[in-house]
DNA sequence: TTTATATGAAACCTTTTGGTATTATGTCAA
DNA sequence: TTGACATAATACCAAAAGGTTTCATATAAA
């Protein structure tokens, strides 16, 4: 077990998480895949701006884009979030010792 | 239970986590409190640059600074990281159903 | 008291970020 | 085929981020 959390390539994930609009997009896509126009309609900014955020989310592997006719369907890829969650997981023993132990059990029985 | 994760004031925390140097500082401080000079010595940048990173970490509540003589001791405050971990926790059912259930148990028996 | 040390603070610079507007392209529908 | 629609792509801009150098201040030590 390493003493410090792995840096991995967590960078594009943490970078994607740093913007509140992008976190809101993640929450929205957790409810189901959506085309760009539908996402953009929910925010007070232009569609190209939203498209840029989607590009950054895609760069972090957080969403996958699938062409469907003239639409581009954006689908959440939650596994990418695990990279960030795992990094933070190295510290959660500080605030919840019991949870850390349960996680150990879960990982051992995998 | 809300359908979407709370936005809370996760912003300063996620912002602080977005930089690799700052994440490395967090890892370092997890091993114990340190003065600025000692932290700066571990990175290939000037002390004022590191001081700026520490200011951002402090802004996110991730570290606490305590004056001790002419030194300023930086101490990790892991509870602040829980804000980010909780946000991500709303998604971890996607990648580990069992862990999510265990977390429910932990939270119910608190 | 003088000197060295630890830090704070300001000014400055370059790159990145987050947004805009505009134009171009591919696809569906009449 | 023509027109409307969904998106891509480009150029542009202001502000924030991440770094530097320089100078000031407070404390410790000689």
TrEMBL record, chains A, B:
It comes from the Bacteria. One of its GO terms (molecular function) is DNA-binding transcription factor activity. Pfam families: HTH_5 (PF01022). Residues 2-106 form the HTH arsR-type domain. This is Transcriptional regulator. It comes from Hyphococcus luteus. The lineage of its organism: Bacteria, Pseudomonadati, Pseudomonadota, Alphaproteobacteria, Parvularculales.
């Amino acid at each position: 077990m390493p003493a410090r959390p792995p840096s991995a390539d967590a960078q594009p994930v943490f970078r994607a998480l740093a913007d509140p609009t992008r976190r809101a997009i993640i929450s929205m896509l957790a409810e189901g895949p959506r085309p760009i126009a539908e996402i953009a309609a929910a925010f007070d900014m232009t569609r190209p701006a939203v498209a840029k955020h989607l590009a950054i989310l895609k760069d972090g592997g957080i969403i996958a884009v699938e062409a469907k006719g003239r639409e581009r369907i954006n689908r959440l890829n939650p596994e990418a979030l695990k990279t960030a969650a795992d990094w933070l997981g190295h510290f959660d023993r500080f605030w919840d010792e019991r949870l850390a132990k349960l996680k150990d059990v879960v990982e051992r029985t995998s």
